[in-house]
């Protein structure tokens, strides 16, 4: 797919207006600049890009668990995702602007652009090129949706409804919902597509903030692996009736900050300048709001970082150091790893076998 993207970009540059097509001094550009100040336009661009990245930020654990090495999911991956997203946006904008200078119409959808290529260049070479480009984008779209949407959705559904859904069944549900929401309407024009990408951050950025604050600030990087499989009401991650209400409150308040602008995107007559600018900085605004609310909220409740009876000092990633891998030393018996199904009491001291540890140190 990267080869196909750069190929269509090169063709548009050679057969269109080229870089000159991106004329920021044109009447259309001046009209757009007079409507929205440059600073807010930049903020809106950041908002759109982060909106597209937000699902991947939240779904990282669903994919990172397949990594064989620690460095497979780290700074290199984060930098590559951000850089590639900016490059893809530039390729699309430059290609569209270049051909608009020649054809007089902007094709923001790759399929419309390829269709227009055939309208203007009905030759065997053009037809073959369009076929292979379309095939590359088709396979790329399928792989992207499978990795970024299907697998995370299936994993989340097994967590919500473990009695009825597996990862495979969750993927089937995701495919059916993907058709039910008529996504082709979101690709009707550039404005609708950008509005959709911008709406992502209203819901995903607060969730991302809660996850980050909980890991780095509240737990200081300590995850007790056996407790992840403890579904009892005494479980470390059971919270209150199985729900982290502080996190829910932070998410709701963070989302609320961006809702007025989201409504205004589809009902412009209801949109004020203040709400429009709030929406342009929606990712940062909702992220910071949810993060601050959660950080303050946990000061008024008792969120346990270690299981009951473990009077440990919260040091950075203590459970991940010295080969602990999320376990306390007394939870291992040779090559067999055990975890208590509930805190040890006088009535029950039963231990549940969690799994075996192989020679390579992996569970």
From TrEMBL:
It comes from the Eukaryota. Residues 340-363 are annotated as: Disordered. It is a multi-pass membrane protein. Residues 346-356 have a biased composition (Basic and acidic residues). The chain crosses the membrane at residues 41-58, 79-103, 128-148, 169-187, 193-218, 239-263, 283-306. It is found in: Membrane. Keywords: Membrane, Transmembrane, Transmembrane helix. Its main location: membrane. One of its GO terms (cellular component) is plasma membrane. Pfam families: Transp_cyt_pur (PF02133). InterPro entries: Pur-cyt_permease (IPR001248), Uracil/uridine/allantoin_perm (IPR045225). One of its GO terms (molecular function) is nucleobase transmembrane transporter activity. Belongs to the purine-cytosine permease (2.A.39) family. This is Related to uracil permease. It comes from Fusarium torulosum.
């Amino acid at each position: 797919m990267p080869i196909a993207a750069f190929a269509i970009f090169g063709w548009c540059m050679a057969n269109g207006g080229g870089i000159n097509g991106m004329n920021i001094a044109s009447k259309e550009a001046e009209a757009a600049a007079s409507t929205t100040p440059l600073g807010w336009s930049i903020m809106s661009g950041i908002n759109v890009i982060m909106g597209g990245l937000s699902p991947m930020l939240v779904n990282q654990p669903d994919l990172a668990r397949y990594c064989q090495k620690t460095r497979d999911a780290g700074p290199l991956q984060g930098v590559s995702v951000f850089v590639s997203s900016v490059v893809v946006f530039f390729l699309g904008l430059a290609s569209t602007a270049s051909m608009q200078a020649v054809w007089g119409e902007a094709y923001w959808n790759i399929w419309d652009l390829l269709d227009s290529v055939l309208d203007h260049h009905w030759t065997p070479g053009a037809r073959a090129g369009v076929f292979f480009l379309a095939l590359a984008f088709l396979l790329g779209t399928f792989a992207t949706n499978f990795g970024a949407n299907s697998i995370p959705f299936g994993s989340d559904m097994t967590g919500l409804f473990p009695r009825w859904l597996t990862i495979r069944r969750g993927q089937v549900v995701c495919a059916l919902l993907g058709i039910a929401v008529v996504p082709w309407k979101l690709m009707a024009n550039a404005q609708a597509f950008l509005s959709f990408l911008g709406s992502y951050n209203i819901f995903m950025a607060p969730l991302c903030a809660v996850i980050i604050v909980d890991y780095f600030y509240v737990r200081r990087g300590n995850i007790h692996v056996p407790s992840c499989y403890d579904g009892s009401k005494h479980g470390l991650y059971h919270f209150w009736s199985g729900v982290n209400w502080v996190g829910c409150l932070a998410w709701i308040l963070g989302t609320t900050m961006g809702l007025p602008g989201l409504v205004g995107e589809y009902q412009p007559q209801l949109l004020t300048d203040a709400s429009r600018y709030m929406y342009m900085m929606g990712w940062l605004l909702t992220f910071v709001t949810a993060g601050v609310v959660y950080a303050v909220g946990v000061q008024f409740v008792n969120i346990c970082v270690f299981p009951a009876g473990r009077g440990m000092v919260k040091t950075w990633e203590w459970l991940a150091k010295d080969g602990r891998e999320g376990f306390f030393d007394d939870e291992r018996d040779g090559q067999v790893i055990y975890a208590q199904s509930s805190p040890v009491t006088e009535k029950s001291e039963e231990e549940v076998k969690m799994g075996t540890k192989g020679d390579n140190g992996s569970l």
